[in-house]
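Hi R.,

Here's the chain you asked about this morning:
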Amino acid sequence: MNCSSFPLRLTESGTYLVTNIILTPLIGVASLVCNFLLLIIARSKSLECHKSTYLYVSAIAVIDLLFITFKSIGITLESEVASFVWTYSRPSAFFRHVEYGVGRSLEWLSGWLLAGALVEAVFQIKRNGNMRKSSIFILIMIGVAAAIVSNTPRLFEITRVRIHNCLELKELWFVEYTSIMFNTTYRNIYCWLATALGHLCPTLIIGSLLIKIGLFVRSKDKWKQVNEPMRNVMSLALLWLITNFPLMVLEIIQNMGNEKPKFLSRFNDDRLSVNLIKLSRSAGTLFICLFTNQQFLALFRRRFCCFPLGANCSRKSRKNRGDDTIWLDIPYWVPSSRPSEAPPKNKVHEEEPMGFDNKGAVVEDEPSKKEPKKFFAVPSMYI
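And the predicted structure, written out as tokens:
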């Protein structure tokens, strides 16, 4: 086998051993870890964002938890290596129901949730006021309607095929009705409608809002007016835009069907790439959520102080550790071996007071016994 031509993708005939037995379960496990952490963060409400961002983070976690995990299991079960274990009624249809009925609906709903959060950010930045809750509710309802309209036909089609194949009820009115309704023409219409409502419209809205916010906060003074929650929303929106663009392109290529060019035919069933893109989105969302959590940042700074603090790392780290040593900024400063300890007492005070000789003259110490003066690091308790 030529290693240079070894594809890490799914083909129509099956999958390679590395793709299905190694990479796909790893994607599922990584998705489980990332999205459980995201759910914990959203549940604890320690993320400094607005309610719409909480909903978005929770939706992203549930989406990738269901979509990537179940799809990874489904790909593994449908592989050639594991096909001998499963009979004709293997549970692949269940994973497709989960994918189309729940996963994609929440996925496209998340884009509209994030669009609502960005609209709220624009209102707060430009008008210094809060957006009406009714406007955010309208955007959320648009997302719900988009998810229902775009995914219900596909879910019905899967149900029709399942009934037709398993029960062989060709005379059933539901099968006849859906077979007429979901022919090639109607299927193409619903596929393009789903792509437009789920990917294209949120991409255009979020992209235009990010450009609008970027043009408004070009100066440093205006950027300082943007609070931390709004910056978090902008970071999440930029991450969603970057990861959603290749998903939208793959969706458009799949909607072309047999009419697409030959060089695009290899993207016909590239589900592994989709899972990797979604995993990168969930991991990036987790990274942004962790570094906007003040408790996590405090723990991170205590462990790795030099990363966020820069040049003042040593001084601030000593302060965080409770070391209140004050280093005297004096020329010819001589550091002691253990600055945290108390400075040694002056030997002049430890000796007995200077005596008098028989004639009443003061007895002075010999010059050779005098030690040169040194400067020590003096803790604040001794000042």
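The chain has a mean pLDDT of 60.

Let me know if you need anything else.
M.
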